[in-house]
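R.M. (postdoc): so does anyone remember the format we settled on? I'll just put the structure tokens first.
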């Protein structure tokens, strides 16, 4: 058994014990890597072990509390940060059995008791004094003090003891956030438009396939004028057919295209930019078979 100075911290999700105290008491340890996060998300180095032990008040040694604490090289700086003048007297503390009678003098802190132990040891007693005087809280260890004092110039160092243990999930998430590489969209504007068209217009068929209408370009380059050239070729070929006596057969083929609905007459009043099939039939007889070839123009 050994006396040690401790602080109660309702903002800490874990308890901590200094390496010095753990070695002096020869505390049994369990290996466990622990990351500790404090104010502003600052993450300290990993603690490698935890220890389980019991604590009690010097005033009530029979009352013991089980503590599981993370072993760290140093719990915090010496507290208080500067001595509290002895001439400061607070009447509301008169007659109280303080957990730490030497609270005025800075000293080593070897133990921080987190919220789990804090909830067990705090009682209902409370005493308040004049402004700029500490408030006394009754605990199982005796009365403890918290608050400000009117002691000279303010300290240039602020001590804070809030701590939170990071879970494995948080550590993995932080790792991936650091290692995550931004994926750049390599699609051209035209490719992106096609993808959006599919998302907006596709349907899922019963056989599992997808159906989507063909996309149309918003800006289409003119195809150019080739109709006059095709007509010249047509007239030249027509004269050749008359000379060879093959025109009636070709005329029959072209008429079939209209009667069977494969071709229709175009309205000449619409824009000149259109896709037009001009029938230019090349007639070849191979073993009695008639072959026709169709060309197009715009």
């Amino acid at each position: 058994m050994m006396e040690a100075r401790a602080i109660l911290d309702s903002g800490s999700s874990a308890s901590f014990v200094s390496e010095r105290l753990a070695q002096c008491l020869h505390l049994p340890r369990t290996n466990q890597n622990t990351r500790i996060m404090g104010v502003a998300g600052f993450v300290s180095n990993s603690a490698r072990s935890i220890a389980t032990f019991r604590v009690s008040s010097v005033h009530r040694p029979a009352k013991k509390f089980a503590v599981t604490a993370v072993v760290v090289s140093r719990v915090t700086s010496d507290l208080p940060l500067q001595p509290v003048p002895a001439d400061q007297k607070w009447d509301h503390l008169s007659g109280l059995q303080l957990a730490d009678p030497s609270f005025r003098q800075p000293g080593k802190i070897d133990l921080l008791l987190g919220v789990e132990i804090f909830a067990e040891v705090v009682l209902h007693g409370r005493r308040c004094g004049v402004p700029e005087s500490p408030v006394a809280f009754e605990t199982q260890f005796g009365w403890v003090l918290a608050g400000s004092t009117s002691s000279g110039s303010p300290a240039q160092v602020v001590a804070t003891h809030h701590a939170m243990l990071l879970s494995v999930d948080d550590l993995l998430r932080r790792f991936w956030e650091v290692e995550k590489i931004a994926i750049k969209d390599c699609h051209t504007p035209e490719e992106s438009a096609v993808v959006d068209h599919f998302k907006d217009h596709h349907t899922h068929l019963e056989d599992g396939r997808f159906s989507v209408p063909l996309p149309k370009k918003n800006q289409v380059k003119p195809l150019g004028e080739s109709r006059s050239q095709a007509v010249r070729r047509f007239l030249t070929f027509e004269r050749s057919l008359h000379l060879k006596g093959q025109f009636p057969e070709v005329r029959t083929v072209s008429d079939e295209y209209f009667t069977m609905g494969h071709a229709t007459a175009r309205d000449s009043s619409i824009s000149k930019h259109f896709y037009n099939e001009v029938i230019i039939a090349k007639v070849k007889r191979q073993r009695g078979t008639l072959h026709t070839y169709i060309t197009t123009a715009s």
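R.M.: ...and that's the designed sequence above, right after the tokens. Also worth knowing: The chain has a mean pLDDT of 79. Residues 227-244 form the longest helix (18 residues).
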